[in-house]
Amino acid sequence: MDLLLHLRYFRTVAEEQHFGRAAERLRVAQPSLSQRIQRLERELGVRLLDRGRTGATLTPAGRLVLAETHTLLDAADRLRTLVGRVQGGAAGTLRAAVPPQLGGATVAALLTAYRERSPGGTLDLRELTTAEQTAELTAGTLDAGIVRHPCPATGLGFGPQLHQPLGALLAADDPLARHTQIDVRDLDGRELLLFPRPTAPALHDETLTACARHGCTPSAVRDVAGSEFTHALILSGTHVVALVPRPAPEPGTAWRPLRGTPLTWRTSTAWPAGRDGPAVRLFTEAAHDVLREHAGLVPATPQRRLFPRPASEFPL
User: Fold this and answer.
1) What separation in angstroms does the CA of 72 have from each of 7, 60, 244?
2) pLDDT tens for residues 50-96?
3) DSSP symbol at 49
4) 283-106-199 Cα angle (round to 5)
């Protein structure tokens, strides 16, 4: 027996105090309504209504059951509303992550954009490397994320890729800083500061391969995780350069774009394949808009030349 449905019928009869009027309000046949009330009385083991020629009146047991019926049906309505909001992405908690070096302003804009799209939802956001995100997405401990490419794709779904051009971060008194643009080969023989390889192995290797392809072989590659440490090394060194997206201006350093945009970071949203529910879609839509508007990412690099590469070139 559908207890909630039968209680709704009972409540309507109690409010109308008449089976005929209740049946008309519920748009059911009166005999069917009477049978349902009788079944409810048998299920509960008490008589709920006294039937008479002029209508139906509550018994003492019926008055007690009606009071609890209001509470139970109101709670059921609230539960249905909540579930509907969760299914629509307007409530619930979404576990998501962003990669390092995304920028504080971009992360703040993402939190705001998701809150605007899902007023009743909560975004549990963490900073994780691409390697950490793909592992957690595969394990099901993360619902969505923003990852750098190339990255493992097995079991994951991805949003459209966006490109973030890299430039050279130099000391302000470096001779190359006098130019508005520089060639990658101008950095040949310098010490290169790059994000730690374990955070995104394929992207790390792809960046070095692209440098070599454009005539730049660093004298050394140093793993650097934080922007403050990167600036400190550039300020203290004379032949040091970092390949990074355009950063916020810092005294003593200068960022110059690379001529022809030969190096970019490819970025997209990601989620476990087949689990792109409404909340995930809200996150991916918000992330895509924020990455374009606040992080300067673009859909494509039309002037960039593409080179084929074997699938095994980047060990993961």
Assistant:
1) 9, 19, 59
2) 998 888 999 999 999 999 999 999 888 888 887 777 766 666 789 99
3) E
4) 85
